[in-house]
């Protein structure tokens, strides 16, 4: 499960250390490094961010003041050289508080807290999608299919559609392969929502979704095992 990280740090050396640590952990992905809160806000308003690595002492708007402005913040790990801010930071339900200079083992401990929290989120049967400038919590059982359109995805559900700037391959990594199948380079489907199928397409909510040539043999075998043999 990939955790998308945003570093907000005005000290280049401290930012480089965090970048190096993120690169060492395979399920972390660095989205960007911002030197102030205003740059960070642009990313939070345009992309899905799972983890904010936030320095407290930033130019202009300070880290804790920045947190106060966020209505639906992602998971937050605070970083600072001053331990006296720790208690104040926890008032914002931050996941952890890292004191500079940050050791790698301590960084891993903090990341594990975020990973456990994110896994719990999926265990509750929901996923968070950043759409329409807010974090939208979607029940996994409501998803019918997900369609890729260039750098965006459309998450189609029983109640509506959510458009997010996200890669189909990335959301595929976060979903249970026992419940969701990639059947085309542009489509992921919810297995439980299949209405009918043949060798060329699968129908979900009266929409015909093509089975890609590179996926056909594997998908037809899965369909056969799940639903039994029919004529193609």
From TrEMBL:
Residues 4-115 form the Response regulatory domain. It comes from the Bacteria. The modification 4-aspartylphosphate is found at residue 55. Residues 127-225 form the HTH LytTR-type domain. GO terms for molecular function: DNA binding; phosphorelay response regulator activity. The keyword Phosphoprotein applies. Keywords: DNA-binding, Phosphoprotein. The keyword Ligase does not apply. The lineage of its organism: Bacteria, Pseudomonadati, Bacteroidota, Cytophagia, Cytophagales. PANTHER family: STAGE 0 SPORULATION PROTEIN A HOMOLOG (PTHR37299:SF1), TRANSCRIPTIONAL REGULATOR-RELATED (PTHR37299). This is DNA-binding response regulator. Pfam families: LytTR, Response_reg.
């Amino acid at each position: 499960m990939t955790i998308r990280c945003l570093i907000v740090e005005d000290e280049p050396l401290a930012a480089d250390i965090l970048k190096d640590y993120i690169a060492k952990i395979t399920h972390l992905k660095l989205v960007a490094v911002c030197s102030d809160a205003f740059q960070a806000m642009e990313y939070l308003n345009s992309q899905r961010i799972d983890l904010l690595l936030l320095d407290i002492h930033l130019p202009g708007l300070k880290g804790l003041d920045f947190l106060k402005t966020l209505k639906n913040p992602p998971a937050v790990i605070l970083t600072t050289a001053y331990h006296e801010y720790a208690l104040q930071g926890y008032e914002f339900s931050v996941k952890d508080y890292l004191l500079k200079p940050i050791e790698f083992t301590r960084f891993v401990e903090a990341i594990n807290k975020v990973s456990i929290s994110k896994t719990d989120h999926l265990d509750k049967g929901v996923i968070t999608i950043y759409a329409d400038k807010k974090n939208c919590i979607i029940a996994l059982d409501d998803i019918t299919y997900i369609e890729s359109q260039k750098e965006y995805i459309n998450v189609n559900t029983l109640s509506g559609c959510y458009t997010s700037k996200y890669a189909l391959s990335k959301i595929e990594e976060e979903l249970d392969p026992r419940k969701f199948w990639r059947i085309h380079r542009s489509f992921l489907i919810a297995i439980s929502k299949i209405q009918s199928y043949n060798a060329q397409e699968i129908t979900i909510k009266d929409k015909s979704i093509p089975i890609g040539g590179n996926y056909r043999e594997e998908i037809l075998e899965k369909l056969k095992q799940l639903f039994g043999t029919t004529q193609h």
